[in-house]
Specification:
304 residues, alpha/beta, Glutaconate Coenzyme A-transferase, 8-stranded mixed β-sheet, 23% strand
């Protein structure tokens, strides 16, 4: 049973889809559990927000092997790892290998990752797009420590954008393993620890878990429809009997995110942050440009 913390504070009137995703992920963090977090971006922002609001006793380790830091925020630009501020008062400064050994021994409850592509069985591609065998492909940064995170943590949570090119029937390259071919015992046959594997996929639009090792839709955001969610996937997921409505950010969450965790907007303003969302007069939510076209409040801020 997936547990989601109740959002703290008054619902925000104006936010973007990346902020929404980070706040949702923060509410999924369990207190007292251990998290191996990808090097920066949305996964790092989510765990930091969770520790401030929902899970103060959650322990996280960074991709480079820093164990249980108490970081000095905000981070220096591009220095979310391998820096004095990011690793301040850490219990241990290790290496990617040393944290991998912790995970091998069963000490890492969850891993949180980003990705280029994911398939119905939770296999992750962060290496290339195209045909590897023919040499016709575009190369990306690769998994870094993500292959170890997806292989060794008990449960893997994936954060990605909700786009048809992201949700594909077959990834172009398996950088980090999910349930591989989806058959029972496939991970174990490949030499991976028994009982580990994909757990959740979270986008700004939807939340998925896995049923019989196949992706299942369990919740959608209030500013999109089910038809929109399914239209931006290249395969059809399984469907829960009842879909959750995912709560939008609160003013308290956004204040912490914008003023303490990411005041420069490196995660929540630059790059592909999705659409800006605005609350309508009736309390529902929609893309800001559509709300304004319907006569939304002109006094609401365009940004912070």
């Amino acid at each position: 049973m997936i547990q989601i913390h109740t959002a703290k504070g008054e619902k925000a009137s104006y936010f973007n889809e990346r902020e929404h995703q980070i706040c949702l992920m923060a509410r999924l963090i369990e207190d007292g559990k251990t998290y191996w977090v990808a090097g920066g971006g949305s996964p790092m922002a989510s765990i930091l927000l969770a520790k401030k609001l929902y899970a103060p006793n959650a322990v996280y380790v960074t991709e480079d092997g820093v164990l249980a830091p108490e970081p000095v925020l905000p981070f220096d630009p591009i220095m979310t790892m391998v820096s004095s501020r990011a690793g301040y008062r850490a219990l241990q400064w290790g290496t990617m290998n040393s944290i991998g050994f912790h995970a091998q021994m069963g000490y890492m409850d969850y891993g949180i990752l980003n990705t280029l592509q994911v398939d119905p069985y939770g296999n992750i591609n962060s290496t290339l797009l195209g045909d590897y065998e023919s040499g016709e492909f575009r190369r990306f940064g690769g998994p870094g420590g993500a292959d170890s995170i997806a292989s060794l943590c008990w449960r893997t949570i994936l954060m990605t954008d909700h786009q048809k090119r992201k949700f594909v029937p077959r990834v172009d390259f398996i950088s980090s393993p999910g349930f591989l071919d989806g058959s029972e015992g496939a991970r174990e046959r490949a030499g991976l620890p028994r009982g580990t594997g994909p757990y959740l996929v979270l986008t700004p639009w939807a939340l998925f878990d896995y049923e019989d090792r196949y992706l299942r839709l369990i919740g959608i955001s209030p500013f999109v429809t089910l038809e929109q969610v399914l239209a931006e996937m290249s395969f059809r997921p399984k469907m829960a009997d009842q879909l959750l409505t995912l709560e939008t950010p609160t003013e308290e969450e956004l204040t912490l995110l914008r003023t303490e965790i990411d005041p420069r907007g490196q995660v929540t303003i630059t790059g592909d942050i999705g659409r800006w969302i605005m609350r309508r007069e009736d309390g529902s939510f929609g893309p800001a440009d559509e709300v304004e076209a319907q006569g939304g409040d002109p006094n609401l801020p365009r940004s912070w």
